[in-house]
Structures are given as C-alpha cells and as structure tokens.
Amino acid sequence: MSGDAPSPSQADRTRPVSELVAGAVCLAASVAFLVAARALPEGHSSGDVGPGALPLQIGIFALVCSLAYLGLTLRGSFAAVPGQFAQSHRAGLALGIFVLALVAVPWLGLALAIALASALTTLLFDGPHRLLRAVATGVGIWLIAVLLFQMLLGLPMP
Amino acid sequence: MNARPSETTGPRRIAAFVRNAVAAVCLAAGAMALPQIAAAEFPEKPVTLVVWSGAGGTLDTYGRKLAELLEREGGWTVKVDNRPGGSGAVGLSQIVTQPADGYSILVLTGTLTFGIAQGLIPFKLEDLRLLRAMQSEPSSLAVAKDSPLQSVDDFVAYMKENPNGLKVGGHSSGGFHQYMLYQMMQQGGFESGWIPHDASGKVTLALLGDHIDAAMMTPSTGLSQVQSGDFRLLGVTTAERSPFLPDAPTFKEQGYDIEGAIWRGIAVKAGTPDDVVASIQTAIDKVTASEEWKTFQQEQFQDSPNWGEAEFTERTRKDLEAQAEFLKSAGFLQ
Amino acid sequence: MDGIIQSLGVIFSLSGIAVLLIGALLGMVIGALPGLGPSIGLSLLIPFTYTMSPELSMLLMISLYTSAEYGGSISAILLSTPGTAAAAATAIDGYAMAQKGKANEAISISLTASTVGGVLGGLALLLLAMPLASLALQFGPAGYFAVGLFGLTSVAALAGGSLVKGLLGAGLGLALATVGIDPIAGTPRFTFGQFELYEGVPFLAALIGLFAVSEAISLAEKQARKKPLGKTRVGHVFLSLGLWKETWRSMLSGSVIGTLLGILPGVGGNIACWVARDYARARDKNPEEYGKGAANGIAAPEASNNATVGGALVPLLALGVPGSPTTAIMMGALIMHGLHPGPQLFTEEPTLVYAILFGVIIASLVQYLVGSLFLPIMARTVLLPEGVIAAGIMAFAVLGAFAIRNLMFDVWLTLGFGLLGYVMKKLSFPVAPVILAMVLGYLIESNYRTALVSSRGDYMIFLTDPISVLFLILSLISIMVPIRRAWRARRAASHSAA
C-alpha cells in the first residue's frame, strides 16, 4: 500500500486540504457503515454467517484504507493541486440546471424538462451562435426524447 | 351511472361515433358530463396493464398475451407498462397512486402475499380488488435421475433418519417453494435446511450438477430435464395429476395434504366501481373462452385456475395468514 | 444435415439478411445510449417478434444482442459514457486513446475485437455446446464465489495512480452491493425504507452517474476536453496490420475468457471484460500503458465482451436454462412460439437450433459490416461543439436512467452518482473499481453464504470443491504477480541508486 507514493521531493509542501477532507469523509463513512452493519440482524439458516457479516468486513476494510489514506496524505504523498475546485461552480451549475429540471418534471413532463435543461446547459459554454446552438440542442433533445424514447421505445415518461 | 344504457345496445361503430362526437362537444363546451358517459361502456380510453416485473419473464409473457387478447377479443386498447422493483411494491404503488377507475390494471403473482407477510410490500390486501387468477403453477419435489429416492415417503423417511441429511434448495429465500417444503416438514416431522437460489434456472443447474440433492421447483423450469428423465418428480403440489405431467404423482395421492400453486392474475385499486369491474370481468371471460388463450396456456404448461373475485380474495387472505405463520417459524419474522 | 442446410437457407434468405441488418443497426444505437443495453433492447423487440417465424425472430434477437453488446463501446470510447455495463472496461483505455486524437484507431480496434470475439464465441457454441454445458454444471456456489473473488483481484490493476484510492473505491462498490434484500436471510439492508432499493442500488444508475454524468459536468467546468478533438480524422475502420500484430493475442485470450465466463449464469459479460483486461495487462510488456490508451486495453475486453454472447447461449440451448437476463428474454420469445429450449430442441427443431448457432457467428460478421458503414458517421458526434456534447450526455443519461425501471428515483440516484464521480475524478480516485466491486459484491456474497449454508457452516467446502480451489489459486497468483513485479522494480531502482 505504500509502493505508490511518489518520491517526497516531488510532493508539494503545502497540505493538500481537499485530500485531507476526502480522507476524513472516507473515515466517517466507513465508521458509519460499520455501525450500521453491526445493527443488522443475525442470520437464521444454519451455517449462514448472517446479513451483517460481509458489511462488517467491508466496514473494517474501508476503515483501514481510510486510515492509510489519511496517513499517506499527512506524510505528503499527494500533492496539493492549486485551484483544484476554483471552477467547480460551473460544474455545479450544470448539475443544478438538471436538478431543477427534474423538480419541474411534474409540471413540464420529462421530455420538455430535459430539453430545456440541455438548452440552458449549452449556454454555459462559450462559442459562436450561442443562442442558436441552445435552441437547436433543446429542439433536438426534445425530438429524440419524444420520437425515439417515447414513441419507438415506448418509455412511459412522466 | 346508467345514464345512457341505450348506447351499449346499438351497433358498436355507431355507438363509438356517437360517443366520440358527444365527447368532443362536451370537451369543446367544457361541460362536466364526461364521467357519466365514461361509465356507460368501459373502457373509454386505453387501459394500462401494469406488469410488476421486468419485460421478458413469465409474468410479462402472460401480461402481454392478455393485452393482445383483450384488444382482439374485448375490443380494448391496451398498453403494457413494466414496473419492476421492490418485490412488486413499485408496480403496486403505481396502481394505488392512480384513480380507482379501472384504467390501471395490475398484473401480479402470488408472491404478493409473501411480500406483504414479510413486510417488504408496504401495502395491504385491502388496497386491491383481486379480480381474477388466470394462471397457476405448482411446486414439486424433484431429484436427479440417479437418486435412490423414489417417492415422497422415501424422502421423508431418509430425512427423518438423517436430519438435514440432504441438501434441499430452490428458488428464493422465504418464498413459495420453501413454504411448500415447510409444509412437508410439518406433516412428515423432519428437519431440513434450505439452500436459496436467486433464479429458478440456477436451481435446475444446481440439481443437474449435484450441488443439491433435492429441489422444490416449478416443474416447467426444469421441463427439458423432466421430459428427458434427468429429473424425477417425487410429488407435485396439485390436487390432481396435471395433464401436462400425467406420470408425476401428487403429494395428495401419497397421503400428504400439501396443495399450493403460485398464481398469476390481475387486480385493480380498491374502490373501483362495481360496474367497471363487471366490464373488466366480461372482457376477461371473453379472453379465457378464446381458443388462442387455451392454446397459450397449453404451450406454457399453465393450469387455469380462473378464480373469480370472491374465491381469489378468500384464497389470498388464507394464504397470507398461513405464510405469515411459516415465515415466523422459519425465522424470517421475529 | 438437413437442418444445417435449411437453417443456412433461412439466414441467407432476403428476410433473414434483412432482420440481421435491422437487428445490428438497432442494437448499435440502443447499445450506444447509456442505460439501454441488450436486455432492454430485446424486451422492446419482443412484441414485434410474435408475428415472425421462430427462426427469424431468433436471428433478429441474436443480431440485436450481439450489436448492442458492442454498441456500448462506441459511446464509451468517444464520450467516456459506456452504454452497457460491459463497456465500462473499454471506456478506460478507449477514451484515453480517443483523447490522444486516435478515436479512429480506438474504434477500429473495438469493432474488430468485438467481431473476432463474437465469431470465436459463436464457433465455441457451435462445436462445443455440450462439453461447455457440462463444464458449467461443475460450478457450485463455492466455485462461483471463487470466480467472483478472482474477478475482484483485478481491482488493483484498475487503481491507476494510487492503490489506496483504488481500494477505497472497491470498498465503496462492495458496500453499495450489500444494499437491498439480503440474498439468504431476506432482510432488507441499508434501504432506509425505500422499496426502490430492495433489489439493490441499480447498477446502471451507478454506471451512468459515475461515468456519463460526471464527464458531462466536468466538461461544463473546463469548457473543453483535454485535447482538442477538432482534428480527429474520422475515416474507415479497418484495422491496420501493425495494430493486428499488436492486439491479436489479447483478442484471442479475451475471446476464450469471454466464452468460458459467458457460460456461467449471472457472471457473463460483466466480469469477463475485466478479467480479460487484467489478463492482457499481466502478460503485457508495458503494463503501465494500461489506462493511458493501450490498444490491448481495448482489444481484450471488447473481444471477451462479445464472446460472452456465444457462451451465454450454451446453457440455454444445451440445458434449457437461461444464463443471463438477455437469454431469459430469448427463452421467453421461444416459449411464446410454443417451443421449449433444451437438448431435445436439436432433434425436434434442427433448423431453428442451427439458425441460432450459425446466427451468432453471422450476426457478428453483420455487425462488422454495419459498424464499418455506420461508425464513421457516429464518430462525428465528437466533432460537435463541447456544449452540445455535454448537454446531450446529460439528457441521454437522464433518459437512460429513467429507462432502467421507469422510475424517477433512479434518475435522482444517477445524478447523485454523477456528483460523486465528479468529486472522485477531481481527487484522482478511479471510478472503475467501484463499478467492478459493485458487480462482483453480490456474486461473491450470495455464493459465499449459499456455500456455507449448503455445507452447514463447514468452511472446507471452499477447499474440497476443485473449481473453487482452482480459482482461489488463480486469485492468489493475480495478487502476487504485481506485488512481485513492484518489488523487483524497487530492488532494481535501489540497486541503480546505490
């Protein structure tokens, strides 16, 4: 588990905060999973190790890995990437547009909602003819959703 | 509700034309007379058959045949909608969230009662009107060709002498086949473990490969082996010998009071009006009377229980009680 | 003999060729769309096949099955959005290669390897159906457990930069695989009362989310792909002699692995592609190239993937037992025609059986033909503006996620996995181990516990079952080989340093 560390001289001296946070999240998640696994009932067939056996082992495995990950991070095995999440609001925006569209599905229907969301998503990108591109994408997606998925494949879309 | 009985007597095409014309006028005027007209002859619009399993399985095959015949024999327009998931709970919730107007019909199986008893299906029998059980398949005790066991008595005697001496398995954990074994254990007075398999085809493979010594299985899942003699059916859980398996003895004729079958049938949401249900039943009668349905049942090796609503509901209620008992004693429920 | 001649007559009739072509075209499109795999494609076809003869309906289904099994790789290579579970292995090297501006090569390799795999798997089915079927019968629960474990050992090879991150990903996948109703005891686990989760976390939701959605939102962030693809030449898809020489071994080994694993019900293509990739990597002189666009990293999984089609039909034809959801649908279609698959079908309906046997081989060739005409057009999607690509991936991901079970729940789940995949990529966590562990987790656990229930708690069952022993040893070997290699490399490095 230690053979993958790049040579320390390359490692950035600044603490990679995102890696530390990720390590902490992994640790918390494995502890939570472990606790939840212990709450599972016993098996009732003779010879069965029970529903909780594998989850317990996975929890322990993940716990060990999380600790190793945190340890490696603290030892400086992972270099901090400056500005790693600086542009993340754009990714969040793309996801957010679709989340909003899905919330609006009861009113708009699935096909129209994702067509609108796709059109909006293209506006996040630079390039020539942005409005035209957005409209073309929206119409195209709507046509594909309705013609291919709804009519041809018979998907019962809300 | 019988506002326009005259419509049902006239020739269908004229009636349909009149209905459409009236409906169009009503819509245009925004009149509220539509529900009355709709009740005149069910169905006024396409009916959805919600199949609670994925496409391609036995239940789906049945649902699609039913849809085809409802269109041909009943003159309906039918859409099949597969809603797999949650041991049927997804399909069931699809039905109960729709209006109780008969336009959403659930195509379901006898695993309904196991799901409810085990607490996996968060609904009650009372949420549905069980309209008709149209297919059923029994379970059977099967062994491989080279097994020394020749009858249910042999099996029971062996298990009594060697508790848990044979590996017995079948499809699913805490389901119909294990329930049949449990009844055998009760009546024969022996102990047996249960090796669950997550697909019925895997039971066939396990028995062929000698990974289990005996299986509780639907005869048709090992059909090719039963016909070729690779599997021997020691007992079948039908009241009388099945016409498909005239050589396979029943449990009953060997002195064990074990009878059970996994049914497939249709249900609608509770509260669906009686006249709509009557229309559905009439259409189903037309389907079951057709030659094509009979051939289909024959080819699929399906028994036709054809239980009406009263019998179907009564049997299901009893099944639910008995299965809850079984699940408790087998350790599935506390 | 009459059966053979008549079946060839059916295949090469006008309608036979027509259904093969239609099946291949439909299959490729359906496979390329995320979430819509061969089983959804076949279930959509079922109503249309009622009116056909059994032979034609089987040809149509086989052709669609084969091409859909392949089609998943097209979007995997071009857009890093594997359309099917099995194409996730292809996505790793295929997309990396396409990013280097060699999308055309990547596609030629995948199409050729798929065809080779399909033909060899079909030949195995034609010539060895009975021995392969009796081999399948040797696998009991202990054997399946060991096969699953063996598959899991290839996680290390997928870890890429950091082993600990790969292992954490595998842990996540295993944990996700335990969600749902317990296979033995019947109790729901980690479902939080959501009955949508009773059958487990839908695997396709994880696949579409981790690969497709995360890729789309990363595109939105960067506004550009790693390298501009504008100059990607999209030409013919015939494999160059050099690439043939480079990849023929992994095509062959991939085909053998795919055929063998394909005969095992519930194993099939989902794990064959990973095992094949791992095997090719272990034997390769440059294992470090894998993940960065290695030709063999595409050829091996692709060949194995399509070889599973022939393998999966073995239990259906030889034993009358469907080996996969897809073959279960085909069995349903045969039953609809009043035919019951099994060995007796060889004597009762020889024309049909030979139409299926030859159909598998010929469908692969038709797939090549359709692919070589159709792929250059499909490959042009990469030339679309970035924004349109990102929006399109998102839209298809949502539609595909919905198509899994017609549930909005799965769409939400997919978006959640998309966010997770995005963060994982940011922190250079590989997503492939999550997918692999999720596929194998259920197989491993259910068979481990079934084995113990059938031995009444005696662990010796894993050491007395010869198949289990064989695969446990193989697992050990596949763990030891990279460790030994790393140890040697380190020793060599310290020698040269000293």
Automatic annotation (TrEMBL), chain A:
Q: List where the protein spans the membrane.
A: 20-40, 52-72, 93-125, 131-155
Instruction: Describe the location of the DUF1468 domain by residue ranges.
Output: 21-158
Which Pfam families does the entry link to?
A: TctB
Question: Which InterPro entries does the entry mention?
Answer: DUF1468
Which keywords label this protein?
A: Membrane, Transmembrane, Transmembrane helix
Q: What is this protein called?
A: Tripartite tricarboxylate transporter TctB family protein
Say which species the protein is native to: Cereibacter changlensis
Identify the taxonomic lineage of the organism of origin. Bacteria, Pseudomonadati, Pseudomonadota, Alphaproteobacteria, Rhodobacterales
Automatic annotation (TrEMBL), chain C:
Q: Which domain of life is it from?
A: Bacteria
Q: Where is the DUF112 domain?
A: 18-436
Q: Which InterPro entries has this protein been placed in?
A: DUF112_TM (IPR002823)
Keyword terms of this UniProt record: Membrane, Transmembrane, Transmembrane helix
Q: Which Pfam families match?
A: TctA
Question: Transmembrane stretches, by residue range?
Answer: 12-33, 45-68, 74-95, 107-130, 142-160, 167-185, 197-217, 255-277, 316-339, 351-375, 387-407, 427-444, 459-481
In Swiss-Prot or TrEMBL terms, this protein is called DUF112 domain-containing protein
Native source organism of the sequence? Cereibacter changlensis JA139
